[in-house]
Amino acid sequence: MSERKKDLVILLHGIALNRSTFWMMERRLKQAGYDTKSISYPSTKFVLQDLAHWLVEQHLPPAIWAEYDHIHLIGHSMGGLLIREFLHHYKDQIPREKLGRVVMIGTPNRGSEYADLLLPYRLFHRFFGPAGAQLTTNFQEQQHPDIYYDLGVIAAAAGPVGRWHDPIAHFVFKEAHDGKVSVERTKIEGMKDHIIVTSTHTFMLWQRKVAGQVIYFLRNGVFDHHV
């Protein structure tokens, strides 16, 4: 009797970061019985469509789907947009019965107000590269992704706006936010579930409760709203 295949979880970090941001969540996923593959990708070198092509060529060739029962995808911030791009442009190459669930964490699905503010400045383009402009409201409002997969979105709110101490964020945001994107801008039509945690944009990746919600969604297709 052949050994049962396992589920693989692909993890994609945010812009200008690397795979190390997922070290704690990756550990939790392994403890839960998943194989994991956290990928450092050239987030500041190419636009999202080119990054999706790079992802397929380097890490998600057609052959990998035969190795696992299901492949799930987790993306933080721009990593979620990269997953969206990949699943849109390569959906004809993905065996639907093998495609697992998708979780986006702090992803600016409708654009980031912070990116809108910084877009006119040359330093923003130099630091974040060509994909930086794709984080903006103007760009994301022109996208119409087909969310044909089970998608859960985790957003963070850094407490009431009045308690947020980042002086720039205080002027940028008028509603609940994580310091980089508002809660409302993380939402996208077609998602299966949405949940808000109290945290900041990057720190939420290191919280046990966020990893717990990711695992719960992978198993159940919804978040645990009772904790």
Which labels suit this protein?
227 residues, globular, alpha/beta, Rossmann fold
The termini sit apart by 40 Å
Care to count the β-strands? Answer: 6
Order of neighbouring strands in the sheet with most strands: 2-1-3-4-5-6
H-E string: EHEHEHEHHHEHEH
Shape: globular
Instruction: Count structural domains.
Output: 1
**Number of continuous helical runs:** 8
Largest sheet: 6 strands, parallel
Estimated helix fraction: 25-40%
CATH topology: Rossmann fold
What's the average pLDDT?
92
The computed structural class is alpha/beta
- Rg over CA atoms: 17 Å
What's the CATH H-level superfamily name? Alpha/Beta hydrolase fold, catalytic domain
Low-confidence stretches: none
* CATH architecture descriptor: 3-Layer(aba) Sandwich
Query: Quick one: CATH class?
Result: Alpha Beta
The proportion of strand residues reads 15-25%
3D architecture notes:
The protein has a single domain, classed as Alpha/Beta hydrolase fold, catalytic domain (Rossmann fold). The chain has eight helices and six strands; from the N terminus they run βαβαβαβαααβαβα. α1 packs across α8 and α2 (48-58) crosses α3 (78-89). The chain has helices spanning 23-31, 48-58, 78-89, 113-118, 122-128, 137-140, 167-172, 208-220; strands spanning 7-12, 35-39, 70-76, 99-105, 151-157, 193-198. Strands 2-1-3-4-5-6 form a six-stranded parallel sheet, with helices on both faces. It is globular, with a radius of gyration of 17 Å.
